[in-house]
Each structure stands twice: as structure tokens, then as C-alpha cells.
Request: fold
Amino acid sequence: MASAPWDYIAKLVCIGDSGCGKSSLTIRLCEGRFASHHDVTIGVEFGSRIVPVGPPHSTTGSASSPPLRSLDGRGDGDDADDTRKEGGSGKPGKGLPPPPLAHQQDKAKPPPQKHMKLSLWDTAGQETYKSVTRSYFRGASGALLVFDLTRKSTFQHATDWLNDLRQIAEPDIVVVLVGNKSDLASPNTTETPPPPTTTDTTGTKPAAADEPGTNKREVTRQEAEDWARRNGVLEYVETSAKSGENVEMAFLRVAERIFQNIQAGRYDLNDRRSGVKGHNAAVGMGGANRPVRLTGDEGKNAGGGCC
Reply:
């Protein structure tokens, strides 16, 4: 049997109010396209994407993933410095070839790249399905808490979503706050709200509020970053599912922190509640790499008629 192209699998949930673009973010990440029209999610929809985690990818200086710090606190080359010393002189032996370790370091190959399969659960944001949506939080190791930069009410509801998530999921779940629809929001806005809509001379046609360049931002970056710090959220990222800006980065931030937690031994990879599985454990459970989507009728059946 051929080995799977991933080393770990992690369950991620996308949560937030309806209409914030959670499904569009998932489609952008998994399929690389933007869906201008999308049916309201009923219950949950699934997607998956395999991403690199850890070195060498995380140490290349890419903006999409932070570098990992050495777990033992020692910098590169510490051992090599020790082997170069002879009799405390700090110089190699006269006429001797370079020590093997130093020689190997010069030509050392990077460690094998690890990969993580992100199992994405795109949940419904409507209040009607909230009792069902909450049940999908169990066993999640990461979450994207999404709000709409052009609707402040969706940002104000973020606290409720986060509280629900932490009550049901594991307490150390990795959360990134995502302000979506940055293509409609100017980055250099202030706290001053946008001017009111005006009409033309006939009084019947509203001003072109949807013209390109119009700033619809209702939540500033500073507001969102302050909220993230107060609530112990890993990071705040502004994305555009339409242009693709920062979409991959938002998911990679979550994946990289989950990988760091794995390296630190914070997950039991054999416990389904951790939201993370190693390859061997997932194969033993019959895990399959198959995206699934619930249709409207199936979503109602999944609810069991409870709401």
C-alpha cells in the first residue's frame, strides 16, 4: 500500500455569522477559485487541503508561516563548534581532515518536509442551525473565527462564537480571527464611519456605493487586533476570498501552531478528542481522503429533526 501524502490530519472549523464568506474561504483554499454566488450552508460542508508544516518550509522566511524555534533552545552549529575544538585550543588538529560532523554540516540535507491534511468543516452561521453547528465543534484542534469587515455586527458577535467554541471544543484549540472581504475595505481607514449615502438630483437613484474603491470598512484593524489580544486568540488576519489575499496564510497559521503543539507533545494522537491524528492512527480508523458535501435534504436529516 502506498503511503499517504501527509503525516498528520487536523480538524479545523470555520465559524462566524452567516454571510461572512466562510464557504468562499474554504472554496478558495481547496479549489483555488471564488464563488460569487453560494447557497447558504445547511449544517456543515466539508473540504480538505494538504499543506506543508515545520522546517524546511517554516524556516524559509515565507510570510505565510512563522519559523519554528529550536525545542532545546540551542542554535544551529552548537555541536559543530564543540567538535572543532581540540585540547581547548579551538583549532582543528594540524594536518588532520575536518571532523566528520563539521564536514556533514556543510553538506547537510534539510529534514524531510512534514505535511498536514486540514479537514475543513465549514459550519452554518444562521441562528436556525446554531444548535447543530455547535455539535461540530467537538474534536476540533483549530478554528477560523470569521467576520465581515463591512458589517460591524458580525464582529460584535465574535465573542459569542468564541465562547461557544471554547465551551465545547478542547480548551487549547488554536483560533485565528479572520476579517474577510478586505477587497471592500480600505486598509488606511480611521474610526470615522463612512459618509451617509446620498441621492442624485432626481432623488431616486442612490449614489454608487458599490463602485470600485469605495470603502465599506466598519471594523478597523486596531479594533480587531485589540480584541484578539484580549481574548487570547493566536492572530488576526484580514483576507479576501475574492482576490485570494491572505487566505492561505490564515489557514497556514493555524496549521503551523498545531504542528508546534504536536512537537511539544500537547496532543494525544490516539485520542479522537484532540482533533489531531498521526498517519498510522488515521489509517487504522479507516480515514479517507474524500471531500463530502451535504445537500439541503441531507443537512435536514443530519439534524435529526431536533431543531
User: Anything to note?
Assistant: Residues 62-90, 196-210, 282-307 have pLDDT under 50 and may be disordered.
